[in-house]
Specification:
single chain, alpha+beta, Phosphorylase Kinase, domain 1, Aminoglycoside 3'-phosphotransferase, Chain: A, domain 2, six-stranded antiparallel sheet, three-stranded antiparallel sheet, 11 helices, 11 strands, globular
């Protein structure tokens, strides 16, 4: 089924198999096995979701730039085979980073990093430390890459004031739904000042624009099967200009709540301060490039990004569940309540 696509890439040897791989919800992912020189080698083939990424060509230009830059940095550090430790593209036979099929679909292929594995949730403090270290390491490797060289492939992403304004419009337009979420709207109302608290320092140039990952969830961190140490970050489609706080805040938000975004019982929602401290320690040990102003804003970013996601879930509920995929009526409202409960736990822990 995929042979004609696969044949467009420069891979030595003979194709043995090509099967769907993983549980990703965005891109189609295929694990390909090749026999070459008496060894079986694996590669990842992906079709970029053109409904999520409206300009897949720009996504690939970003991925090509960032992966190439990281590999160059690793070689400068004396790592002879960076392809085994970080996402590395396979080039097409025409010399490009992706193949465009007859229907306009964009396909790309990566080396498969066989020494690593991913986890959906943090297991313990050591794992939290490695998650933080992976994020800091990634940001450090691209710290000298000019963000102006990258496309903004997700305009408005992590602009919290925009999400807040969208919620305000939804409340006015969908009054029948808004009337049932009074407590949640009151929760948002007393925290509205959070919305601009990360962007104002950026606008005033108190903190710099950098290259950031933008989706630093736990299962985008590859962990060594042998040592348990972080290898790298994967899923680089969202890489674009931003501030480090988008990454740090979202990473902590996703990692330090053992109950997860879909916690059935709100009373199970917790902010594991030990995991937060371990993640922060690992992050700062790698992110030596940070300015003092950036470091001082890290704790606040955890609250802002959690507030932002809660607003997004709440807005989608008020609008009739038009964006996030849901499993039952009121799912997005429950998700919003989970984030708001988590934010309360963060406020208790981080304001001490």
């Amino acid at each position: 089924m995929y042979e004609s696509i696969i044949s467009s890439f420069q891979i030595p040897g003979r194709l043995l198999s090509a099967e769907r791989f993983g549980a990703g919800l965005i891109n189609d992912t295929i694990l390909c096995e090749y026999s070459a020189d008496g060894e079986v080698r694996k590669y990842i083939l992906q079709r970029i979701n053109g409904q999520v990424f409206l300009h897949p060509g720009q996504v690939m230009q970003n991925v090509e730039l960032v992966t190439g830059h990281i590999q160059d940095r690793m070689r400068q550090e004396g790592i002879a085979d960076p392809e085994s430790l970080t996402p590395a593209l396979i080039w097409t036979r025409s010399g490009g980073s992706c193949h465009v099929d007859q229907g306009g679909g964009h396909w790309r292929m990566f080396h498969f990093i066989e020494s690593g594995e991913v986890f959906d949730r943090v297991r313990d403090g050591n794992h939290a430390y490695e998650v933080g270290r992976a994020l800091g390491r990634f940001q450090a490797l691209v710290a000298d890459l000019s963000p102006e060289k990258l496309h903004d492939t997700l305009p408005g992403f992590h602009e919290t004031p925009r999400y807040l304004a969208e919620l305000d419009r939804a409340v006015k337009t969908h009054g029948e739904h808004a009337s049932a979420v009074g407590p949640e709207l009151a929760f948002v109302a007393v925290r509205r000042s959070l919305a601009d608290s990360l962007l104002d320092p950026l606008r005033s140039a108190a903190i710099p624009l950098r290259v950031v990952h933008n989706d630093p969830k736990v299962n985008n961190i590859l962990i060594s099967k042998v040592t348990g140490k972080a290898l790298c970050m994967v899923d680089l489609d969202t890489v674009k200009p931003g501030i480090v706080h988008f990454d740090f805040g979202d990473c902590v938000r996703s990692a330090a709540n053992p109950a997860g975004e879909d916690a059935e019982d709100l009373n199970s929602v917790a902010f594991e301060t030990g995991w937060y401290e371990a993640l922060t320690r690992g992050y700062l040990e790698e992110a030596k490039f940070l300015t003092t102003a950036e470091i001082e804003l890290l704790p606040l970013s955890v609250r802002v990004i959690t507030f932002e996601l809660g607003i997004r879930f709440l807005c989608d509920h008020v609008q009739g569940d038009t964006y996030f995929r849901t499993r039952y009526p009121g799912h997005n409202l429950h998700r919003a309540r989970v984030q708001f409960r988590l934010l309360e736990k963060m406020e208790e822990a981080l304001n001490k």
